[in-house]
Amino acid sequence: MRITEIKRHLDGRVQTFECDLVYAAPSVRVVRFQHPAEARLAGFHFPPGTYTYGFFWRGRHYGLYRIMGPDGRLIAHRFDVIDAVRLRQASVEYLDLALDLWVSPQGHLVVEDAEEVRLYVRRGVLSPEHALLVERTQRLLERRYPAIIAEAARLLQLR
Asked: Residue 159 has what pLDDT?
């Protein structure tokens, strides 16, 4: 079954990604996205044929992407700090709060876009409440990312 990932940005942009639904439960959706072309992001190389599993939970302020090479090899995990997650039958929608955390296959964690978050706060685009949410979620992910990645791996086994 096809499902649409709808990513709303703080600057008003909206991105949509057509995905395959991999797993659905009342509080979680797992989708699979096929990358259209080779790319390089955050120091990671995504060769042609790369695909990503996306994990979205109701009530959590992060989404997780498990990025896989065409050979099934793990390239990286990426956490997005998000809010207002809506899980529907045909879509997953959320507000992207700009901060990303990348995790290498060896478990090395890198925080990305912290300066963008500070800029959004200075401009008043990111509310004080959302800024606090970003900060709390970053701390949570820095402590718990191995357990969350393990939970996502278990969800993939259920499919």
From this structure: 66
Separation CA 1–CA 20 (nearest Å)? 6
- 48: three-class secondary structure by DSSP: coil
Task: Write the pLDDT tens digit of every residue in 68-94.
Answer: 999 999 999 999 999 999 999 999 999
Cβ atoms of 64 and 54 closer than 8 Å: yes
Q: How far apart are CA 57 and CA 119, in angstroms?
A: 27
Name the average pLDDT for the chain: 95
pLDDT digits (tens, 9 = 90+) for 26-66: 999 999 999 988 888 888 999 999 999 999 999 999 999 99
Domain with residue 55: its CATH number is 2.40.380.10
CA distances from 76 to 102, 106, 125, 150, 154 (A): 7, 9, 29, 14, 17
Nearest to 84 by CA among 96, 69, 94: 94
Structural domain tally of the chain? 1
- Its domain, for residue 69, covers 2-158
Tell me how far apart the alpha carbons of residues 102 and 89 are, in angstroms, rounded to a whole number.
28
- Helix/strand/coil for 102: strand
